[in-house]
Amino acid sequence: MSNTASFPFPAPGPSERGQAVLRLLLLVGAYVGSGRLGLAIPYIGSNITLVWLPTGIAVAALVRWGARYWSGVWLGALLVNLSIGSSWLVAGSISLGNTLGPLATWWLLQRLDFHRTFDRQKDVALFVLGAGSGMLLTASGGVASLWLTGLVPAELARRAWLTWWLGDTVGILLAGPLLLTISRSSRQSLSCRRSELAVWCLVTLLVAWGAFILNAGQGTGALPLVFLTLPLAVWAALRFGVTGASLAALLLSAIATWGTAHGRGPFFLNDVHQGLMLLWAFMVALVLIGLLITALQAEGGRAEAEIKSSQERLSSLIEAMPDAIFFKDGAGRWLITNGPARRLFQLQGNEWLGITDAALGAARPEFDELSSACQRDDELAWQAGKLCLFEEQLRDAEGRLHQFEVRKVPIFESDGRRKGLIVISRDVTEERNAQREIERLSQRNELLLMAAGEGIYGLDEQERLTFINPAAQRMLGYSADELIGQVPPWRHPEQVADDRPNACPVRQTLADGLPRRGCEAWFLRRDGRGFPAMLTVSPIGEPGRLSGVVVTFQDVTERKQAEAEIHRLAFYDPLTGLANRRLLHDRLAQAFAKSARQRSHGVVLFIDLDHFKALNDTLGHDVGDVLLVEVARRLVEAVREEDTVARLGGDEFVVMLERLGGELLPAAFQAERVAEKIRTALNQPYVLKGQPYRSSPSIGISLFLGEQKTRDELLKHADIALYRAKKAGRNTVRCYDVTAVAERGSGAGQPIA
Q1: How confident is the model at residue 15 (pLDDT cuts 50, 70, 90)?
Q2: Edge-to-edge, what's the strand order for the sheet holding 516-524?
Q3: Check: CATH 3.30.450.20 for 452-560?
Q4: CA–CA separation, 631 and 251 (whole Å)
Q5: pTM of the model
Q6: Segment 405-436, tens digit of pLDDT
Q7: Nearest to residue 421, comparing CAs of 379, 359, 370, 360?
Q8: Do residues 80 and 35 lie in contact, with contact meaning Cβ atoms separated by under 8 Å?
Q9: Which helix H or strand E contains 572, and what residues bound it?
Q10: Fold category of 321-432 in CATH
Q11: Per-residue pLDDT tens for 209-230?
Q12: How far does the chain reach from its first CA to its final CA, in angstroms?
């Protein structure tokens, strides 16, 4: 019966298992002991008592230790019922109800955020609700078991159910709070008041003995004696806390129950049911009085602590304020000041407390003028009856004049009498000086802005123009009047090629607050002509709270043209416009990498014009240059746009082809077809200075795959193939790599044309 698999709790470790067993035995023992004590005073049969304290023990154990100890509740209930001669069937069924009831109470208290310290009035209500709700199961299960087995007749079932439910509920209210709140700290608190506790116990026993034992009862006239015990319960709650209040309620209830059971006391009436109801009401009242008083004390303590904490925070805040703060009463006497206020008037200790401005001016001549101004402004604030702002001045010990911005707030009583005046004085001397300096710098910066040779304009967070200097107006062709407050019509950098909002540095700066320098831009003038510019974007404000940006730009048209000319001279042949040797080497490096990735051959065609020197010698170099330009044009037209055509110097040209396939021989044959196409194109007649002329090329071919060859090796092999073509009679094509393959295969070394 100790299996707890129905409840998803983690298994305890070895060090916890012994403690769990000890707790379980303690729970069973306490349940059985208190149950036997309760059954000693049965009310209906041998199973229903006036007060059933074991339910309070069970609920307290479940709340403090967890629902895993349900088996101890069940076992204790089973043993108690067996001890009075109940059958196994009756004992088992009653034990089941006695277990489910406390479990239901535990579950409900967990769901309702119950504090077992009873430090809120809400916790008292939740505990009563949980006790009454859970015991519905206990009473229903127990009475049903007794009725079904014939131990309780049907005519007594309703009264038995009510008695069972009230007895179990009162048992929880009496035993539960004591067991839930008792702790080392509560025991120490009681120990500190042990003398008072001893006196209380003696007085309580005497009063309770007189009210519940010596009193013969048998009439409602004895009931007023019960009220003598209520001050004792209040005494215990106020002085000994929730544990003492619970102990008082339990002790007084036990004496009242014992007296009633033995025919004594005010609750032993001729009408048994009426007396029983009064007894239960008395016990519940004792418990609620104690718990509510201690809860109110706890809430009052928390409220007092919060007020004290708030006062301390407010005092610390006032003391930490850089402004001088005063609080004056209705007569103008100083009641509260902070450090800056005391330093302002050079006051030490508490010599400021209770003085007035007039008294300060009389005692300190250097403050006489200021004190007069303060009194005048105070009266104006009282007359206005609302927050007022004043300007006041004070000279320090060195004769320097300080300006103060003073706020005064009058406070009135409900009947209109003056209650107090809050004064907050801030030294604004440096602020005013800084403001004047800012205005001076602003004027100077405005002059610099107007005289600057660079274009400068400002935009707000919606990209609307806020200002534009004369240089920008001249470069863009707009006037300030027609643009201020509008989104500028010119384009911002990168928007020409990329319309994404984050592609524009102006919008990027507005988004993240970071400056951007050296951004390339393209501006459109009013007449539609554009020009390149270099700009800097600077944020105005702080990141996250920008108010706009300032854009500074320069027209870099001439610089761009110079850069383009330098690039052309560095990488292109000035005569033909073809790539030169430097650019060819760069593209060969790229082609090697691409060939390695794609596992595809590329090729270099080395082209030399036959008898070109003779042309230069006979017709002149200017005619030779015309021929070179025409040859360059035909070479470009003979190959694909992605292929590279370069001039190395004189009449030497190179054509680089890519993506010729992965196999050597097919790639070689494809290259030779292109070479033949080039040879045919260059064999066509030329017209040089009005005279027809024929020229033929010799072409050498060298293939590459990845980086198996260096650039120098590749060009050298193409040159060797070119030499073989010339040796074969010119106007021919030779492939270095196919020749090498043939030489390795047959030893003949026959070139393929």
Answers
A1: low
A2: 465-468, 455-460, 545-555, 530-542, 516-524
A3: yes
A4: 123
A5: 0.49
A6: 888 889 888 888 888 888 888 888 777 777 77
A7: 379
A8: yes
A9: none
A10: Beta-Lactamase (3.30.450)
A11: 888 887 665 555 566 777 888 8
A12: 103
